[in-house]
Structure formats: C-alpha cells, structure tokens
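User: Fold this, then the next.

Assistant: Folding the first:
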Amino acid sequence: MAFPSFSDLKKISPRKSLLIALCLFVSIPALAKKKEPLSSWLNREKAVAVKRMFANISPKGGALGAVAASPSKQNPDYWYHWIRDAAITMNELVYRLEGFETPEERQIETQMLKNYAAFSRLNQKSKAKTGLGEPKFNMNGSPFNGPWARPQNDGPALRAITFLHWASLLEKAGDQKSVLNLYDPKFPQNSLIGKDLDYISTHWKEPCYDLWEESFGFHFFTQVLERKALLKGSRLAQKLGDFPRALFYKNEAKSLELEISKHWNSGRGFIMPTVNQTNMRYKNSGLDSSVILAVLMGNTHDGFFSPEDDRVLATALALENVFKKIYPINRQRKALGIAIGRYPEDRYNGTNVFKPDNGNPWVLNTEAFSQFYWTLAADYSKKGSIALTPRNLSFFKALPLKHKFVSALKPGEVLRAPDPLFQILIGALRRKGDSFMAVVRRYANPDGTLSEQIDRKTGRMVSAQNLTWNYAGFLSQDRARH
C-alpha cells in the first residue's frame, strides 16, 4: 500500500487532506495489529488472562474464596459463585502451582486455594434447595434461592476433580496433613472431597440440568466428569487406606461407562450431548460444544472417549461445519478461522430475550477448540502414529493441507512418526489450533479483555464482561501448546 507524502497532501483540498490523514491514523494501527505474530499476542494476552482471572477470585464485595463468574451485575447479572465455573477456574490455579512459580506467587495462589476450600465447605454445609446439586451461590456464600435450573450435578464432579488435583500436588510435596484435610479416610463423608464423591456416587443415575443450565436429562459432559472424579477419588481413597470406598467409587465409575457410551449415535455420526431429554424440543440437531469441553476436562488418559477417539473427531468436525454456516462472521471471505458457539439452535445472547437465531459464538468454546487441536497434536506426537479410519478421515481431510496431501489420506492406513505425511498432519493440527485463537484475537477488546460472547454479525464483544471462564479457558489452551 502506497501512502501519499505530505507534499502530495498540500496539493489536495484541505477537506480531502483531513480525510486521508484520518484514514492513515486509523489504518496504521490496524495494519500493525494484523502483522503482529499470533505468538506475540498470546504472550501478552496471557498476562491479561491471569490478571483478570485473579481479579474475580475473592473480589471486593465477595467473601474470601468466592469466585465471581463475572463482575457484571446487570444485563446479565453474573455476580455469583457458580460451582462449575469456580472449580474450572481454581483448577487452573493448581496447574499454575505445578509450574515454575516464584515462592511469593506460590504463597499467594496457595492461600487462594485454601480460601476457596473453606468457602466450598460452607457451600456443602448450607441448606441449599438441592444440596450439593445447587448450581450457584451468592457472593457472600448464602444459597441463591430464586428460580433456577436445578440440580446441576457437574458442579460436585468438577469441584472434586479440582481438589483431587490439588491433593495429588500436596502428596508429592509430602504435605500429608493437608491431603487428609481434603479427604479424611476415617470419615470421608465429612470431608471436602469425600462429600462430593459420595454425592456423585448416589446421584449419577438421576437426570439433571446441563452445563448451559437449560436442558434436562442425562448429559455427556456431566457423566464424563463424574466418571473422572470417581476414578481419581478411588485412587486417593486406596492410597489413604479407605478400601471400601475405593472399590465403591471404582465400580460406580465402571457403571457410568456403559451410560456414557449411549451418547454415541452411529446413525448421525456424532456424540449426542444429552439422552432422554425431556424439555427444549427445539434443540434437535444433537450437536453441542459441551462434548468437546467434556473430552478435554474429563480426559483420564486411558483411551475412554479420548481426544483422538474417532467418534470425538467426527463430532468436532460436525460442530465446526454447522457453526461455519450459521454465523455471518464465519462466512466472511477473510475469516481467519471458525468462531464456535454452544449449539446451533441457541436462543440466548446474554439478555433476557430468547428467540431463534439469537445465539452467538462463545469465547470459551472457541478457546476449547484451539486446546483440542493442540492436545491432538501433542497426543499423536507422543504416540508416534495416526490411524486413519472411515469415521475420522473427513476430519483429517478438513485440516489446512495442500490438495496432494489430502488425496494421499486413505482409510485403514496408519501413519507413523518417520513418515513425512505424519509430520505434515501434526503441523496442520497446530495451525488449525492457532486459527481459533486468531479468531479470539480478532474480536477481543483492544485491552485484551474478553466478554462471554462474540456477536454473530458484527464480531463485537457482547454479554457478561470479563467472564472468568474465558480467562481460565485461555490458560487451558496455553498449557496445551507447551
């Protein structure tokens, strides 16, 4: 692009000169942002994510240990401690403690976890309407007793997973006393982890509301996380000598596997988010991004609905295809990647107005797809092979590949690490993962802050500002890259 010189501007009328100058003032920063490598933006954005996430943990006006879903108090009001969102957020704090934190950072973040544990115990002991199935609490710790979609059983599972993760870290550090504070083998029903695991064990056979707080039935997301919590809980109970519960949790997890497998719909060719749904008749596509979230958060590294499972890959591709079609920002000629929503029939846009074609892409789902592709690249690299099947062939052919490589992919083949095509696929998975974060960068606010949703038409950040899950999700995808 050639820019006019100041001598050229003198030959133009004052009004035209002003217009050109304004255009230059606007376009130069935009061009600079466009040329900045994604990796540079991701490094800067990580600092924003950590800062904003921490700001919503024990925030001013909330109790110690409470995690605000968002500081937004109206249109929409997210000034609550959601059990699910809080557990996802605090689990990222545990991951940070596994890293190379300074002693000062470790002390601060450990205290945050201790405050969260104390607040969680108060939640468990409260007289909430549905007990441990209660989805959210007021920021002062009192139960929210207004009308809501309850119970939601993914909360206890995620909370147990977070504290089990922390217990594992404490155990490695030799802090047995703190481990026993989280799980008491003598009276597990009275301990933080034991109480959640007992609840899961006795309630997983009952229907509940999903993570989006809309659909009632049996949910892939909830059940996958319940299974993970029970398996990890069984191992901890075994180590601490609580053999009866260790066996009980393990058996319940095994029974859950049979129910989880029912979500695969061979006729449709993807994993259904909910079975035996009794409401939301308009939600009939059977596609929901919660399936990918479940695979990432519920991964037990034992091959059970793992990220590289060809049923999961088929589901991911089906989701991408549908969101590419329904969102105008994804159909733009220069679209960098695909912005991902919750499900195609979504009617919620952050307001109290629910109507068809009202839903938007969500930042946390777009981040999750980036994490998914980077996780696949890491898993395949570690395994050293990629098996092409009739179910996953379309997934691999949809990667950013040259035509000659697409046509070289055949079902039944197993590509191994020395094969150049194997390395090409690994690179394509990473590039695809980057494309989702390129979307987040494009629509993020100038200061890097992230709202809940991206307007499907304009790309503007909309709904709850500084959604805590967005920042936890950013840190999750960042971990997948390293």
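Now the next one, as you asked:
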Amino acid sequence: MFKKILIANRGEIALRIIRTCREMGIKTVAVYSVADKESLHVRFADEAVCIGAASSADSYLNIPRIIAAAEITNADAIHPGYGFLSENAEFSAICEEYGIKFIGASADAINAMGDKATAKDYMKKAGVPVVPGSQGLLSSLDEGIKVAEEIGYPVIIKATAGGGGRGMRIINNKETFKKAWDDARRESKAAFGNDAMYLEKFVVEPRHVEIQVFGDGKGGACHLSERDCTIQRRHQKLVEETPSPVLTTELRDEMGQAALAATAFINYEGAGTIEFLVDKFGKFYFMEMNTRIQVEHPITEEVTGFDLVKEQIKTAAGIPISGRNYYPKKYAMECRINAEDPAKDFRPSPGKITQLHVPGGHGVRVDTHVYAGYVIPPFYDSMIAKLIVTGQSREEVIVRMKRALDEFVIEGVKTTIPFHRKLMDDEQFNKGIFTTKFLETFDFSDLPKSI
C-alpha cells in the first residue's frame, strides 16, 4: 500500500480523498494556489505545498510544479480527483515516467476515451451501441451535409475536443447547416484550440444515464449500476439520482453489460463512468467515458456501501477489486450547491460566507470544503457543496431533500439552494418525467427563500 499520496486538486474532492487516506493510514500532501491558502484541504493534509499563483494554469494545471511537489515530499502516488489534470494523458504518463503512481486511468485509456470520435470507434469494436453518425471526424462541410442526409435530420455536430456544451449545435435541416457548422467550429477553436468536428443523429427526448464502472487494468471489471444525470443546464449537471426513474430491470441489465464490455475492452483501471443517452423509446447509445471519479459518486456510495475513493487507491496499489455488479435497493439524490445566482442566469457569486448552517439528520450527507468566514475565490468552479440524501423510495428522498434544503443556510453569497428547493416541488420532476431540455422551460422566478 502507498505510504504517502499527493492530492492534485482542491475543494471538497481534496478533502474527500484526505479523509479516506487518513482512515487507511496513508499520509497526504495537499497542493494549493495562493488563493487557496486558507482552504480546509490545506489545513487537514499532513503536508502542504504552495504550487503557484491563483490561476489554474499557474497552479493546479502546472504539471512540473505538481511533480516537483511530489518529489520533495516523497509522495509515492498522486490522486488527481476530478477536473484539472484528472483526464490528462500527458500527466498520467509523466507520473509513470517519474515512478509515481497515478491513481486514475492509464495514458492509453485516457487517449482512447478522451477524443470522442476515437472513443466511438472503440465502442463499436466492443459491441456497445453508439449513435449513428459520421465515421470519425468530418473532413468538410459537404461531408457533414452528406452524412446528415443519409441518417436523417435532426442531427447534432460536436467538437471532438469539446465539453460543457461548447462546440455543439443541433441542426434541423440542410438550410441551417452551414451557419451551425461555422459557429461550432469557431467556438471550439476559441475554447479548445481544436475545431475538428463529428456528427451524430440527434436523440429524441433524451435522458442522460451513466453507469459507474471499476476495472482492474487486466480486462476484469464490475459495475455499480446507474446514475440519472438528466437535470442539466447548458450540459452542466445540477441534480443526480439513483436508480433512474426510467430504467426497467431489463434495460438496466443491458446497459450494465454494455458498460462492462466497454471497460474490459480497453483494459481500464480504476473508477470510470460510461455515459449513455436513453431515448423515449428505451434505446440507449454510448455518449462518452469519463476516465476519473465523478462529482456525483457519493450517491452510488450511499446505495451500495462501496467506498469508491478507497477502491481507487486499493486498485492502484494492485489489490483485486472487491466490488461486484450491483443494482440499488435504496434511493439517493445529490443536489450541487453552487455559488451562483439562479435568478440571474446562474451568474457566479464569489465572496465571503458570513453564516453557514449545514443540514443533518438521518439519510443526509454534505460534502463541502467551505466554512463561515471562508472567502470563495473567483478563479475556479463555483460548486461549494454537494447535498446527498438517501431513502427507501424516490418519494422519501424528495421529501428529505426538501427538508435538508430548508435547513441549509449560506449567507454572504448567492447559491443554487433556492432553485433546488423549487425543483423539488415541480410536478413533472416529482413524477420523474423530464429530459435534458427540462430546465429550458423551467420558471426561475419567485424562487423560495431559505428558512
């Protein structure tokens, strides 16, 4: 087992990893930017190293400084968390080159799944259903129009290096294709330095459902069933739940087996997520693989009792996977609490938290790194907490989530708590009837105030 792990991340996920390491008797090293000097992950780690200025490029994305921090502290492994360098193949390879274990996917696996067009080709070979579309990247506008006419409109063009909805356009007919093509390429080039595009059939009334997988790097794998991540705003998840309200036992089993086939085919090691779109007809299609632990992993932990971070560390140390294919018998839901103003188009709301009261009670878990007096910096992702509740039914979970949201008090900054509270009262949400477009027509006015 590892003696010391450096956490190449910040915020609640850094704290999450530190806590697990402490339970396992493993020393930890926190790295931090100047802006995060007063962060809890710095205080709770056994050692801490400042790696640069506030900007991510100068700190949490600076590979040489992170490797140097690992070397001077004699860390024998690095856990990247999620975001930042967690899916960076170069970082994974450099860790291996320096004899430091990267607790995550191999460079080969990250490369295989990191490019969406390449990932789709791998999934076809693995026998996993994929959305009909172009064979790899599109070479020209004319090729895109030809493919669209072959598979039928509507179609969606996507940036191969994209994420968060950038470099993506839905096209309903030939007449609007050129403008969408030009806009998507321009946006992708500006955001990612890459304007390569591919095309897929647009899935009607889609649900976003993902399968949590674990691989041993030798073709062995297990899955821990699904998470429904359909409630999104501009392709950013806001609420996740398990089990999904729309999956039948048969569909759950079929998707689980497809996810296992994908994981085994690329000899994947550690925690990963196979993300699918499920259409109104109950057909599912591979969308992408996230080669890291997910923000929403706690709901899987709550319904399985499977500590995903601990299993990541054990698998990286060569200990056989202790998990098994699991179908949840309980229900769990996670609301992402962001420092944003939902009444003003979710505008970020950095600043000082003047008052904080975290909810508790049976079936309630809060993962957060903030405290009263903490100053939320404007340089990073605006998520400041995850509220997770568990129950024996979806109805019980929603009632418990309402109660927990009412107890959750954060003053000094705007948060998404009022949005979540109103969502829990929405009739369609309570029925489990919604698609990824649900929030496009959601009424963000008259949001309730916390108690």
